[in-house]
Amino acid sequence: MSILVFALLLAVSSGPPESSSVQAFVGVTVVPMDEPRSLADRTVIVRDGRIEAILDAATPIPADAVRIDGKGKYLMPGLIDCYSHVDGTPHLVPYVASGVTTVKDSPAPIEHLGLRDRVARGELIGPTIRCSSTDLDGEPEYPTVEAITDPNRVEPIVAEIARLGYDGLMVYSGLSRNVYLKLVEAANRHDLPITGHVSPCGEIATLANGSQRSVENLVGFIDFETGAMPFAEGAARTVARMLRDGRVYCVPTLTVHKVRAAHDAEPRATSPEFRFFPESMRAGVAESGLSAAERYRYGDARRLVQIFHEEGVVVLLGTDAG
How much is the pTM? Predict the structure, then answer.
């Protein structure tokens, strides 16, 4: 059976079983997501974190199983947020409550390695966290950026990232070509995947030559001051095919672009998910990210993602939350 962790808030709220590693979700409607369908009134048996069986609700459950009443609720594979910024422990439960059971934290400050490990040990309720390194870029644009302009600094920096136990490298778009190529070599030596923005200097051929796993935010593909693609549609299709053939995935984070471009905080300020955040954080969540909204343009982003999809690029879902 699938080893996907199933997300159900009911299961989270009931807490971990104390005397059994077997759970039975009874009377639940399963959304398997292998095709557009749902399976009503099923019993799902989970043993040691693995899905053992999906049965008719009338089938007797194992004697050692913890029974969880799922009547009137839906059970689905956990969602993966492929690009996000985990803002500490208060943000962990909202992910799980929204069905997100895995999240890529990019970039992850060093203390988030501890959060990742505490969730893995069952000490905190939260999604499985994959931690990408601090941003690697040519200029210290943000406090989280590790500026690298000298190719000779690359190996010791990547070696330290690997020693600390990060799951991958996060690159920004200001790296020089020489530094980027050294990063690729070092990442391969230390078995660390590279994700992030288009780098170096928009050289898609270099990026798509097996050096980077994914590109996020459409940075380098869309000018967010004008909303325009920097190339004609024919060239966009050529770029898409290069990404496809290089097996580079795209995480466009369209929702955050749309909200910023609309200059509208209302969808976040009234979101029912706010009840999962501490009251002290709610105003900050509603207002965050709006400082650049006056000059932010969404424009061709949706069309470019459509072109990527039509040309066979794997498009992954990420929120840019945080």
Answer: 0.82
Q: Percentages helix, strand, coil for the chain, rounded to the nearest 5?
A: 35, 25, 40
What are the strands, taking DSSP E only, across the chain?
6-7, 22-30, 39-47, 50-56, 66-69, 74-77, 79-84, 100-105, 128-137, 145-147, 168-171, 194-196, 214-216, 249-251
CB neighbour list of residue 230: distance below 8 Å, 6 or more residues apart: 202, 221, 222, 223
**Two structure tokens written together for 29:** 């409607």
Question: What does the DSSP 8-state code read for residue 60?
Answer: P
Q: Do residues 282 and 274 lie in contact, with contact meaning Cβ atoms separated by under 8 Å?
A: yes
Report pLDDT digits (tens) over 102-156.
Answer: 999 999 999 999 999 999 999 999 999 999 998 999 887 777 788 999 999 999 9
Enumerate residues 6+ apart whose C-beta is below 8 A from 155: 182, 186
Amino acid at 237: R
